[in-house]
Write a structure and sequence with these properties.
The chain contains 23 helices and seven strands. It has a five-stranded mixed sheet. Strands 1-3 form a two-stranded antiparallel ribbon. It has about 675 residues and is α+β, with helices and mostly antiparallel strands. The protein is about 70% helix and about 5% strand. It catalyses: ATP + protein L-histidine = ADP + protein N-phospho-L-histidine. Keywords: Coiled coil, Kinase, Membrane, Transferase, Transmembrane, Transmembrane helix, Two-component regulatory system. Its EC number is 2.7.13.3.
């Protein structure tokens, strides 16, 4: 049995290696693999073709996401791909090197590697790889000198991308239209730019492994409006790039935005984003001196235009310093790259020589094999001469065969008994697994029932806590009313009536909270109130209209500071319940001539996030909250302690607010000072 299991494992390992080696046949395969995080290990030593494909995909991923790549490791991958005769792997590494040198403005080396990659992709009829090379060559070739060559690559790109049935290949046509490429005979209109951009975004959303293209299409969309001299729209696209939730803004994005601000003469805004770009590039790409030089060139323009001569001179001096460094390094790099290019050619010649030597060795082996076959035929003839002697031993051989057959039948019977035993074991294991599964399901069901029972008990406790005070007050009010009516004390009777009205409002809020509790199932695990995207400003205005008469009756000023619109994805019932409880608490604790304000504060920006979070503020000038009660509430809403009914006067309203905040993943902060008032801030997700 153990030999059978070993045989199955061996077949599985062989098939896995075969599948891994065969799964990378086109540029598209690498693009899919590069969409998943892959660890890039050291390329020293000998590795399998499958592992080499994974290494190439890892380098491609880093380059697609604007991360620096190790050039020495990449060149080692080129040598290993050439040694293992992996043509598609060799083409991919040539393309990666060509695109790297294109980004570094080393056009001669970029052209050298991109042309080699394009030839291999063309030979394999890999349209996606061909289009990537055409696009990069279109951007790399110096069009002021080689106009015909640049236009030739542009025409190849447009022809192939429009004819191809591959949806990924269509992207290269969209990006050419979006960028308003000047080689179009008729420049695209704004509507054509917008239509091509929407189609490209739709393609990226449909195929998640194309997510790295999103930044590229936004940059080209921005450049398209620049080419059409629509600088206001170019600025809008640059801002959309920075604010997009799926694009992590980097120094390139901030540089584009700064350049867009300068074109529309918003120099102060340009200075802010360009300084941020300058700071980030020194952190994440300190060796990219050319882009640092360009950022300082834009900075000095912005500073001079706002009249900040000191900062402008400083940026100008930095620009000149970088220019000198680049000029000195260009001369040494030119010699180094030329030397590197010829060194690479020599290595290729050496690999070809080794390949020819292998072919000669194979031919020699074939010749030796032919000689061996001839000797084998002679031996066969000698064996035929000995067959007569073998015939004499046939009888003995037949007898031994009969004995072997008997032994084989015994072995077969033993094997069948083993199979029956193995089947019984499998059935027993299946029964044990079924029992374990049912036991786990029962345990989960019991846990859920226990949670429901605890929620029910908590519900009853809070109802009893919040109903006890109103019922005691009603009992006292009955006796007091009877006494005041019999004594004819009208003034005191009016005060009691006002107190009854306040009790009515409080009981009404309590009933609303109880209804909201039962309807929303806040204490049931895994059950959330349905959310919807809506404009919440009308809800707040409705609450203001409802509470204004009560505030006016208490001689309290109720004001609002609300925008025209505020779209949020939230549970509207829960949000209304929170604001209603906060307003009721403010009315209850604010004396006459006081002020209550309901407003939407400035958006809060979380750390490492680019999304804005609006803040709902309910502030009053009332009695304030006692320090010990304030500390308790702050710890509750900070998630440090669990809220308990009756602790520090905590009632149903605050319990509901706490659970709304937990369910919606919002934050609630409380600021209060005794005698001066209280401010609740609810920070929501946009």
């Amino acid at each position: 049995m153990k030999y059978f299991i070993l045989f199955i494992l061996s077949v599985w390992v062989v098939r896995l290696g075969h599948t891994q080696n065969k799964s990378f046949t086109t540029f598209h395969d690498y693009l899919i693999a590069a969409s998943n995080p892959v660890s890039l290990k050291n390329t020293e030593g000998s590795i399998s073709p499958g592992a080499l494909h994974v290494l190439i995909a890892a380098v491609l991923r880093k380059q697609n996401w604007d991360e620096p790549i190790d050039i020495q490791n990449t060149k080692q991958i080129v040598q290993m791909a050439a040694k293992q005769k992996l043509q598609i792997g060799l083409a991919m590494t040539y393309f990666i090197l060509g695109r790297h040198y294109s980004y570094e403005k080393e056009d001669s080396l970029a052209y050298y590697y991109l042309v080699k990659a394009e030839k291999i992709f063309t030979k394999n009829k890999d349209t996606t790889g061909m289009l990537y090379c055409y696009r990069q060559l279109r951007l790399t070739v110096w069009e002021e000198i080689y106009t015909d060559l640049t236009k030739q690559y542009f025409n190849k790109l447009i022809t192939l991308s429009t004819k191809s049935s591959n949806p990924i290949d269509k992207y290269f046509y969209y990006v050419s239209v979006v960028s308003a490429d000047p080689y179009f005979e008729k420049q695209p209109s704004e509507s054509q730019l917008s239509d091509a951009f929407n189609k490209a975004i739709e393609m990226i959303d449909k195929y998640p492994y194309c997510e790295s293209m999103r930044r590229d299409i936004y940059h080209n969309y921005h450049q398209g409006y620049v080419n059409l001299n629509k600088y206001d729209k170019a600025l809008t696209v640059a801002l959309q790039t920075i604010q997009h939730p799926k694009i992590k803004a980097n120094y390139r994005d901030y540089q584009n935005l700064g350049r867009a601000y300068i074109r529309v003469k918003k120099y102060d805004d340009a200075i802010v984003v360009l300084e941020k770009a300058n700071k980030e590039i020194k952190t994440y790409a300190p060796t990219n001196l050319r882009r640092q030089r360009n950022i300082n060139k834009l900075l000095k323009t912005a500073y001079y235009n706002v009249g900040n001569w000191e900062a402008g001179v400083k940026a100008d001096e930095e620009y000149d310093r970088l220019n000198e460094i680049i000029f000195e390094s260009d001369r040494s790099l030119a010699m180094f790259h030329l030397k590197e290019k010829y060194s690479f050619t020599e290595k290729e010649a050496e690999l070809k020589r080794i390949s020819l030597e292998k072919q000669v060795a194979e031919s020699r082996n074939k010749l030796l094999k032919a000689q061996y076959d001839a000797e084998k035929r002679e031996a066969t003839l000698r064996n035929l001469a000995l067959e007569n002697q073998a015939n004499e031993s046939k009888t003995k051989l037949l007898q031994s065969q009969i004995e072997v057959q008997k032994k084989e039948r015994i072995l077969q019977m033993a094997e069948s008994q083993k199979q029956l035993l193995f089947g019984g074991l499998l059935v027993a294991l299946g029964l044990i697994g079924t029992i374990l599964f049912i036991s786990i399901k029962l345990r989960k069901t019991n846990t859920k029932l226990l949670e429901l029972q605890q929620g029910r008990d908590k519900f009853y406790t809070i109802i009893a806590h919040d109903l006890r005070s109103p019922m005691n007050n009603l009992n006292d009010m009955g006796v007091l009313l009877h006494h005041l009516i019999s004594e004819g004390k009208k003034q005191e009777l009016d005060k009691v009536i006002q107190q009854i009205e306040r009790m009515r409002q409080k009981n009404q809020l309590l009933l609303n909270n109880l209804f909201e509790w039962g309807k929303s199932q806040y204490f049931t695990q895994g059950v959330d109130e349905p959310q919807q995207k809506m404009d919440v400003v009308p809800l707040f205005q409705e609450l203001y209209q409802n509470y204004f008469p009560f505030a006016e009756a208490k001689k309290i000023t109720l004001t609002t500071e609300l925008p025209a619109h505020l779209w949020l994805t939230t549970a509207p019932g829960g949000l209304m319940m929170v604001v209603r409880n906060l307003l009721d608490n403010a009315l209850k604790n604010t004396p006459a001539e006081g002020t209550i304000t309901l407003r939407i504060g400035p958006p809060s920006v979380a750390n490492h996030e680019s999304s804005f979070k609006p803040t709902l503020i309910v502030a009053d000038t009332g009695n304030g909250i006692a320090p010990d009660q304030l500390r308790y509430l702050q710890q509750v809403f900070a998630g440090k302690i669990k809220p308990e009914v009756g602790i520090h006067g905590l009632g149903l309203g605050m319990i509901l607010i706490h659970h709304f905040v937990q369910k919606q993943k919002a934050r609630l902060t409380i600021e209060s000072e005794v005698g001066k008032g209280t401010c609740f801030k609810l920070i929501l997700e946009a």
